[in-house]
Design goal:
3-stranded antiparallel β-sheet, 5 strands, Helicase, Ruva Protein, domain 3, alpha+beta, single chain, binds zinc ion, two-stranded antiparallel ribbon
Length: about 170
């Protein structure tokens, strides 16, 4: 938040800098909107993707958390947005509803690599084709099944997936 922003309630700690203010309300999460102040995970678009660090971060999270939700957690990996988490999961054939505990490191790594590949292509003007994003009710281009969409996680962002070829269907399981 901005350095002059009003702080409500009785936080444990308020850090005020020249360009930002951060508020600790308990627990281990420092609220801030400024990139360089918060503890972000490795950048998905880094020139050398730090897949091992990203997987370590994902393993530190609650393993009951759905992978589709975990991919949007900027503390684990910075930069994956709503479009590319759905697309990466489709390419890796992983259901967004699978708990992290149900994926091994190789599978997680593949999802992260697909996100990095697609996002780098998009950044570089390659316009990767959208396979699932905003295509609910239309056939999966890999298997023909009709694609689904649903809101997922605390932020209730809409996730898109194929219930047939993304293993571990289980809407609402997470
Ligand atoms: Zn499919």
């Amino acid at each position: 938040m901005a350095p002059d922003a009003a702080v409500r309630g009785a936080p444990w700690l308020v850090l005020t800098g020249e360009r930002a203010k951060a508020v600790l309300r308990g627990g281990a999460v420092l609220e801030t909107s400024v990139r360089h102040v918060s503890a972000l995970g490795p950048d998905i678009l880094a020139s050398e993707l730090d897949g091992e660090a990203i997987i370590r971060n994902l393993r530190r999270a609650d393993q009951r958390r759905a992978v589709g939700e975990a991919l949007l957690d900027q503390r684990a990996v910075a930069g994956i947005g709503n479009i590319w988490r759905s697309e990466a999961l489709w390419h890796a054939r992983v259901s967004p509803w699978l708990p992290l505990a149900d994926l091994d490191d190789t599978e997680l790594h593949e999802v992260v690599c697909e996100a990095a590949r697609l996002m780098a292509a998009s950044r570089d003007g390659g316009r990767p084709r959208r396979e699932v994003y905003r295509r609910p009710g239309r056939p999966c281009r890999r298997c023909g099944e009709l694609l689904l969409s649903a809101r997922q996680g605390d932020a209730a962002r809409t996730v898109y997936w194929c219930p047939a070829c993304q293993a571990g269907e289980g809407l609402g399981k997470a």
